[in-house]
Each structure stands twice: as C-alpha cells, then as structure tokens.
Amino acid sequence: MSAHVLNARRLLCPLPVIRTQDKVKNLQAGDVLTVECTDPGVMQDIPAWCRINGHKVLESRADNGEYVIVLEVG
Known about the structure:
The chain is α+β, with helices and mostly antiparallel strands. It contains 2 helices and 4 strands. The protein has a 4-stranded mixed beta sheet, with helices on one face. The termini are close together.
C-alpha cells in the first residue's frame, strides 16, 4: 500500500472526478489517494464515483473552502 495526493484545486466539476479517475488507473488495490479540491460538488460526486467503481471513501472533510476526500483504491 502506498499513499498519494491529487491536487484538484481550482478545478470545477467534472474535472476533479476525471482527474481522480485518471490517477486511480495508475494505482494498485489498497493504495490510498487524498484528493484536495476547492469545488464543493466533489463532496457528492467523488463518493458516488467511488461507489460505482468499487473504491472506498475513508474520510471526507471540508475546511475553509477546501474539500478533502481520502479514498482507498478497490
């Protein structure tokens, strides 16, 4: 297992989800990806994408206009 960070700040929907999808393609099952965003829509969009694609959301948080989702690749 390895940890990765994706900077998706200043990107609007659907780009954070697309960038997350592109990044996950290069990761192994069990890897953890932290996605850092400024678009509040990711709080619904990325968890929905994870459910559809078999990944697990470990954590999601919002703080001062920053939205962070931590997921485990399935």
